[in-house]
Structures are given as structure tokens and as C-alpha cells.
Amino acid sequence: MSSSSRLPPLPDDAAFRDAMDRYLDLAFDWNRRFRLTGFRDRDQALRMGIRPSLAALDHLPAEGDLLDAGSGAGFPLVPLAFLRPELRWTASEPSPRKALFLRETARALSLSIAVLERPVADLLRDPAMRWQGITVRGLRLRRGWIRAAARSLSPSGVLLLWTGEEAADGYAPWIQAEGFALLRIPMGKGNPLLLAANR
Fold first, then answer.
1. What is the reported pLDDT for 6?
2. Of residues 131, 164, 162, the one with CA closest to residue 54
3. Is residue 92 part of a domain?
4. Chain centroid to CA 53
5. In a domain, 72, yes or no
6. Residue 43: count of CB within 10 angstroms of its CB
7. pLDDT tens across 56-95, in order?
8. Which residues constitute the domain of residue 65?
9. Using DSSP, how many helices (H) and how many strands (E) does the chain show?
């Protein structure tokens, strides 16, 4: 089985493909000035960034507020926000340059994303904020972070975590200790797997 054979297919939707082309144009243009992503080229960004993001589509809630933690270059936030515009998306990105990129991307693609220049830990500790879903990719997590995320989710909320196999083995018992049922979704060699956790 090839490394991309388990990846979700791209939607057969011209509007989505056009939007992702414009998104990647922006990302690589900004990447020349500010280090947004380690992806070398568009093909790699498509295979390792956009397509793995789509694995979450079957696990997103029907409605509600979603938090993308450490949004950076916008994976998985931008593809998911485009395909699920009825959800209320918030990006947590403390880097001013990356936050500016996310705002420009949201404006260019007409996405409704609230970009907050705050560390995600601050948002998870805020008792006024409750999330129906939290997505996270590219952050090294500690057990306390997962505990805080679990507490900030609504009773039916979902935690969606893109990570490597080894890290997933470490995160799994912490996530299950918070009362979540855990589904591992592999996407082939060289790609992250998705941990989908819900109560």
C-alpha cells in the first residue's frame, strides 16, 4: 500500500480546489519571509497538510464552537473551515506574524475564523469558554494540556489530534484517562495519524 493510499481523497469540488490553490499560494509566498511551514513544495503540502486534515470531517460536530490550537500555517484549520463554514472556528496563534497570515488567509478565502493572539493554554483555562471540538497539530503536548482540553470541552465534545505514531502511543493513555473513547486513523507512511477522541 502506498504512503498516500490511506489519505482521504480531495473533494470533487472545483470551489474547494480553487480555494486550496489560493491558500497554498499565500502560504508559500509568506513562507519566503516568515517561517510558516516546513513543507518543501505544494505537492508535499497537499499530501501531508491538506489531505490529512480531511480525515477529521467525519468526526466534527454538527454545530458549535471549535478551537484550533497553535494554528500556525493553517493545517487543519483552513481546509476544515472552508468545508464546514457553519461551525464557529477560533484559531489560537500567539505569534503575531502567523496570526496576521491566518487573518489574511481568512479574508482572501472568505472564511469566518476568529484569530486570537493568545496561547492556547490561556483559552483552555478560561471558564467562560467551552468548545464542541478542539483540533491540534504540530504541538508537543503534556498530560496537563490534555486534562485542560478535556475540561474545556462540552460533554459531547471531540478532541482531534494529528500526530506521529510514537507520540500517539504516549498520548493515548492520557486521553483515555479523561474518559474519552479513542479512535486511531492511520494515513500511511510519512503522514500523521489522527487520534479522534470523544466521550
1. 87
2. 162
3. yes
4. 7
5. yes
6. 10
7. 999 999 999 999 999 999 999 999 999 999 999 999 999 9
8. 14-198
9. 8, 7
